[in-house]
């Protein structure tokens, strides 16, 4: 028999790691754009900057909401689920748009995969929670 408390802790640890990976990707993208702006400005387009700044803002919001969810806030958990779902959808759509540089489209697909994992993990957790 699986211990639900331990499983919940394991899921929370995995979700924390995934959200941390997302934050690193988001902030790493901004750092990459700073470097590219100096080295090869054509690869640091205005669209890329707009996307990177929005993704970085969501990284902060998602981290703050996740911290509140870990403390037991059901509304924060719902917010994390919604944000993850929106990030999944938006990044997949934007990855299909040709005006983003190729390297950033790869980053968008990776972020979408991370958000898919967060969404599935939290959906499983919510279904098991009484």
Automatic annotation (TrEMBL):
Record field: transmembrane: 12-36, 48-67, 79-100, 106-123
Domain of life: Bacteria
Example GO molecular function: peptidase activity
UniProt KW Hydrolase keyword: yes
Keywords: Hydrolase, Membrane, Protease, Transmembrane, Transmembrane helix
GO biological process, one term: proteolysis
Descriptive protein name: Membrane protein implicated in regulation of membrane protease activity
Organism in which the protein naturally occurs: Actinopolymorpha rutila
């Amino acid at each position: 028999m699986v211990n639900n408390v331990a499983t919940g802790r394991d899921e929370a640890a995995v979700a924390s790691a995934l959200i941390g990976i997302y934050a690193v990707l988001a902030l790493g993208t901004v750092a990459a754009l700073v470097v590219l702006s100096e080295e090869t400005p054509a690869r640091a387009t205005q669209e890329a900057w707009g996307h990177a700044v929005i993704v970085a803002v969501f990284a902060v919001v998602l981290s703050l909401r996740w911290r509140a969810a870990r403390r037991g806030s059901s509304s924060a958990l719902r917010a994390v689920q919604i944000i993850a779902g929106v990030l999944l959808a938006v990044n997949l759509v934007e990855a299909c748009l040709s005006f983003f540089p190729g390297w950033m489209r790869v980053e968008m697909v990776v972020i979408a995969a991370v958000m898919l994992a967060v969404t599935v993990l939290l959906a499983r957790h919510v279904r098991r929670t009484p």
